[in-house]
Amino acid sequence: MLVRYLDRDIIGTDREVEAENGNWVSRRLILADDKVGFSYNDTIIRAGTETFIHYQNHIEAVYCVGGNGEIHDINNDVTYPIRDGMMYLLNDPAADKHYLRGGSEDMRLICVFNPPLTGREVHDENGVYPALSLDD
User: Fold this and answer.
1) Of 110, 122, 133, which is closest to residue 32 (Cα–Cα)?
2) Which single residue of 65, 95, 98, 123 has CA 20 to 30 Å from 24?
3) Quick one: how far is CA 2 from the chain centroid?
4) For the segment 75-88, what is each residue's pLDDT rounded down to a tens digit?
5) With the CA atoms of 49, 24, 104 and 62 taken in that order, what torsion angle do they form, in degrees rounded to the nearest 10?
6) In degrees rounded to 5, what are phi and psi of residue 43?
């Protein structure tokens, strides 16, 4: 059994990763080195921000547990409001280009990635998390 506490084991460690532009902070509770086949993040999207994302190497399931914002599906030109209790799945790496926008308050998202993140990923200039291995 693995037990971690956000306040004691994650915040303030190398498992807490902040975007260079300050748009988000990702607290990475389960990573590739835990060897369970997925990663599990508690992510805060800051109010009033916009981030372009295109996960070419990962599938991501996202569940909102607080705050508000929206996701804009670029390929279909559709915007979906995000609020507590909303889930979305990015399951087509070739097509899931999107803008993630923070709303009037910080938004808290629980995110599951496959393949799992190693913990060092940040979005590159194309909105992509690179496909890293534990050896990188």
Assistant:
1) 133
2) 95
3) 22
4) 999 999 999 999 99
5) 110
6) -115, 135
Q: And the tokens for 74?
A: 């670029």
What is the C-alpha to C-alpha distance for residues 131 and 116, in angstroms, rounded to an integer? 9
Q: Where are the domains of the chain?
A: 6-114
Looking up tokens 């971690």 gives 4
Q: pTM, whole model, 2 decimals?
A: 0.88
- 93 contacts: CB under 8 Å, gap ≥ 6: 55, 56, 57, 58, 59
**Which contacts (CB < 8 Å, 24+ apart) does range 5-11 have?**
6/42, 10/42
In the CATH scheme, what is the code of domain 6-114? Answer: 2.60.120.10
